[in-house]
Amino acid sequence: MVTLTGNTLSMEEIKRILHDNEPVEACPLSMKKVADSRKAVEEIVASGKVVYGITTGFGKFSDVFISRDDVETLQLNLIRSHACGIGEPFPETISRLMLILRANALLKGLSGIRPVVIERLLDLVSHGVHPVVPQQGSLGASGDLAPLSHLALVLVGEGEAYYKGERLSGQDALKRTGIEPVVLTAKEGLALINGTQAMTAQGIAAYIEAERIGLMADAIASLTTESLRGITDAFDEDVHIARGYKEQVEVAERLRNYLEGSQLTTKQGEIRVQDAYSLRCIPQVHGASWQVLGYVKEKLEIEMNAATDNPLIFDEGNKIISGGNFHGQPIAFAMDFLKLAAAEWANISERRIERMVNPQLNDLPGFLSPNPGLESGAMIMQYAAASLVSENKTLAHPASVDSIPSSANQEDHVSMGTIASRHAAQIIANARRVLAVELICAMQAADFRGPEKLAPKTKKVYEHGRKVCPTIQCDRMFHRDMEAVASWILDGSWNDILIGTKTQKLAH
Fold first, then answer.
1. Which of 52, 162, 207, 462 is flagged as catalytic?
2. Band of the pLDDT at 129, cuts 50, 70, 90?
3. Pick the CATH number of 2-195 from 2.160.20.10, 1.10.275.10, 3.40.50.1370, 3.60.9.10
4. Pick the CATH number of 203-308+319-401+416-498 from 1.20.200.10, 1.10.287.90, 1.20.120.80, 3.30.930.10
5. Sequential DSSP letters for 308-344
6. Known catalytic residue at 52
7. Residue 499, pLDDT score
């Protein structure tokens, strides 16, 4: 059981929730803070005091006073009018994460929401009711208003939700699970939608996938090194300690571990003095991407425990401040940075693919074809990888440098963090497919070299990979192979192969 406190949620707990279906509960002490914060809101409404979002309109309408009799209508109107998401919906995993993250943020007790609303959010999680949330339409400041409004609509019995594989109306989903809809009162609609949970949820899912492909990238690159008779001197520990980057040292250590016992790798001068950069600089390039992942994880773990709505209620209601914690700039930067890390895994992977398929760069059959000329072999697989790498370069353009004023220029600088997180997810998916092509080519090259000569650990990768993608004996439709290997990399079942390589085991 993962207990949400508003302050302690970790990436490892998120993995357990998503991949092991570990249940979630609210901390009783945190719920007491929530109840105490709620009293302040009720006193404001009763007194008729003017406080943004409680007794006023929103955005440019912040100067419009709302009477006590209209506070419920105000909150319902808010989420209905703000549910302006467009495009394809987020995967259910992201929607589920949004529910958990929003509940956790509200459990900080700074939002003035009633405990029952948090209970309903967690009821949706426990029953597997996942709001249908369109991916596009958020500016990432004032938070993820449009996505979170679609999420909030399900709480009141409106909108749409996924339940047991069906897409239902929110009302039907609640009826089937016996969950009572809530009637939102003062500040509750605003507290539900003023936040960064869409960009953060997508960012977390992207980070977890990036972590997986990063580990597999090191293993695949090792197999490629053997297939190209690579020089292992470049991975010597002294070289990497001399530079001083921890992540670079760790990648080099993994490569040495994977390649230990190989009969295919070489030393300086045996065949050539030094390798091309795509082999020689694997620790430097992969290590730099791992540095980015460390930064991204730190920012995501801060954000998943952050109060990101407005206004915030402090000191038992004696201090209520309108601020800007909903602004997604920290996550926008982190996601743009993550895009670069994943794109570089793909960039260098595609160059290694080229070195395996180009007969002018190796002593293998042209394009790894069993019958070069009559059969094209891996020729067009390299095209496909090159296309994905090129697409990544356009997606890698930073979303965070853009801003468009909104709400009659009241909200005149926005983060575009949700766009950044969505593009990060696309780049990571593309990188995974590029790595799948590299693995297919490395296994085929190993067939020509003799799989029995592989190092014990890379041989395990080869053997498990061959269960997913058979040896290429003649041309076939390689689309299925590429997608099958890409899915295998994503599902994490290969992780046990890598145990003993001083890598942290992933939750799956």
1. 52
2. very high
3. 1.10.275.10
4. 1.20.200.10
5. -SSSEEEGGGTEEE---TT--HHHHHHHHHHHHHHHH
6. yes
7. 55
